Amino acid sequence: MAKISFEGLKDVYYAGEDVEGAIILTEVKGLEARSIVIELYYQIIVISSGQRRYGYTKRVDIYKEEIDRDVKFTTDSTRYEFKIHIPEDAPPSIAYEISRRVDWVLRVKLDIPFHRDIVKDIILKVYNSVKPTQSIIENITVENQYARLVIDKNIFEHNETVTGKFIIFNMPSRTKKIRICLYTRLEIKVEEAILTDILASEYEITCIEYDSHKLSINREYTFKLDKNAIWSATYINPDIRTIVYVILKFDIKYAPDIILKAPITIYHEKRRISIKKVSVEETIAETLTEEIMKIMRDGRIRDVVDIRLELGFKYDVDEIIKACNKLVEEGKLEIIEAGELLRKYRIKDIKMVN
Length: 354
What we know:
Number of strands: 23
Radius of gyration: 24 Å
Number of helices: 3
CATH topology of the largest domain: Immunoglobulin-like
Strand content: over 45%
Mean pLDDT: 83
Number of domains: 3
Helix content: 10-25%
CATH architecture of the largest domain: Sandwich
């Protein structure tokens, strides 16, 4: 059975970079192929579980080339080198949750006559952000009758600590705590025959909590939000928007929260390009274990077939079993049933369930 693997791929790519590497075909001696095709594309995936339930997928092809055709392999292994450019305006990989994501896929397909096509996919991590065109503005300030929130500047690099200060003017009597948080708002445009909609979700990146009883009125407090994740950068195109902002929130018992919100821009320095190279097995294993944990957090028991179905058949059964067993060794999953043909898993620590 012919096998496809990749060589020379990196763990991270920035928009504007080239994806360079090689395709390695093994166990192909004697086989004939109508064509060998390499593709790079991204797909926007939305699964809505609200009042209007639907699934939406939009695929955007970046590159497609037939690198060989009508070939009869006379040796056991063959190598093809490739170089693919990622456009400057390409969207970043997004994986806040399994139902709202942008996946970048590098695919190689062998068209074998009278047999099922041999296909190998690998998920790439691509980062991008807006290019700051405005000057850095000091002391971005928002306030209301309860508080003032001041951010030291409006533009930050992705690995830079977000700093600022706040002052409480008036503390509602039932306030439990004050929270300073860095949030990302993800907006995805869904266009179908009978539906055009903007689906928005918000994700907390990092947060600092203060006991309301330990804060004084009209006193200035400083803060640092130092877990600014690389995937939290600001990005805008017609289909996808990621907006980053700092909020000050009064968590009030039995009443709506009072919120101050200050938008900021977080960008990537594209000269800081990763040079670490990893094997395709390491890349697949890391991505796969992350995706498995996302779908297992609901606490349900799933067998390997269920997991493969919910992941969209992107991975082989053997790859899923290997990843699940690794998560079992790490104490994150437990085996409920371990038959030769059927393996069932469940999240081990109930506290990890959202």
